Amino acid sequence: MKRVEDLLKDRVAAAPDSTAVSDSSGARWSFAELDSASDDLADCLRDAGVQPNDRVLLLVENCAAAVAALHASWKVGAVVIPFNARQTEAEVARVVKHATPAVVLMTAHVSADAAAHGTRMGAKEITGAFGSLLLAKGTSDPDPILHDVAVLLYTTGTTGDPKGVMLTHSGIRFGAAASSDIRKMSPEDIVYGALPISHVFGLISVLTAACHAGTHVLIEPRFTAQKLYDAAMNGVTIIPAVPQMHALVMQYTKEQGMEKLNSPTLRYVSSGGAPLDPAWKRKAEAFYELPLQNGFGMTETSSGASGTMNTIGSPDVSVGPLTPDTEARIDVDATGGNGVDEGEVLVRGPHVMKGYYRNEAETAKALDADGWLHTGDLGKIDDEGRLYILGRSKELIIHGGFNVYPPEVEAALNDHPQVIQSAVVGRTKEGDEEVLAFVQVSDNDRPTVEELRAFIKERLTGYKRPKHIVLTTALPAAPTGKLLKHKMIATFADELP
């Protein structure tokens, strides 16, 4: 079986001196140096008692040492659990209890949060060619069910029973190749890596895809609009991001007195994680002067399952045709569809997860006997085989008996020139659901609620218009930039009647 770490082995054989990764701490490693650093760290893991099919928990923020930790864990036959160090003690404890890792590694040199976890766990510093990391020992507990599993990813915002997504070596390699191929990544490229490697987008669509193609990853611990702007102006050629990142860098550039990015090197920009509104897509393409590519994927599909390869100005707002060897179909009987051609999106292919670790009940809900993954997303497929995502079935708002898709309302709000981004959620009240909108604006250039209502009145029918609109300069978001919709009502409770 070909394993994920074989990608690095192949790169070392092909181009050992080509740059693999650089970070803001000053590290800049070739593929040969990354290989050496991960070898050194693998020895430390073996000395700590890590065995094949053990789990290694990475409490990290993006840096070269975290990349070395991934490859080191795979080299000893362990399963990696990438987890963002900014998670709380309770969230970390929940994963530790469920996954029982043999060791925990922490990137304290780039993360005060990681350092705090290390202090709490009584971790010891280890050093080597990989730099410096903190290591806390657990108990070796090899699990044979993990023999072909490379990564356990605990999905954001899960409640109830833990859901550690088991992604196999072959599935990750497939996802990496698909992401690399659709972007035509090469050793001449530099890809911007601000998406956390504790998230499937950053881990597979960016980092592992880059290793597959021999591409240099400029990796950042945390996203800021200024850093993305600076990177784009200084050599970066590929920017994969979520819509919120694009919105914030466009706002930052506007505040600098410029309407366009004017990057001398950027050649590819993509957006994932949310549907694209045509007007917003045109705005982003005018800003980058490049086509804005879109795609669909989730943790359970090893990231991408489809993607566009459009030319600039294309009106296509689908998430593209399916990647090779991926199948999809629409379950029109699923709750929330129109019963004709819309319904829950089902996906099948070599990149689909093995299941949820130590959770047979949730696995049975998500994967049917024929291998179809029930994504929980509402969508449709057109006559040309392009997939459209209409929204999450669990986010669907039913107001007055009518279906309201939050992405459609958000698109109308985001089209306003003074709106940075927005989040729309439903709130149950008096036997119905109200539509609530939380809108991020700038302190120095903001519309009134009345102006927004007048603006969207021309774009949305009555039942889709928000009952309440809250204006704010910041919205609660995950480390990936993904808006945390489940926190909106609680965060702004004082501003809601």
From TrEMBL:
Keywords: Ligase
Pfam families: AMP-binding, AMP-binding_C
Domain called AMP-dependent synthetase/ligase: residue spans: 9-357
Top-level taxon of origin: Bacteria
The UniProt record lists the keyword Ligase: yes
SUPFAM superfamilies in UniProt: Acetyl-CoA synthetase-like
AMP-binding enzyme C-terminal domain boundaries: 408-482
Gene Ontology molecular function terms on file: medium-chain fatty acid-CoA ligase activity
Family membership: Belongs to the ATP-dependent AMP-binding enzyme family.
Protein name per UniProt: Acyl-CoA synthetase (AMP-forming)/AMP-acid ligase II
Organism: Sulfitobacter undariae
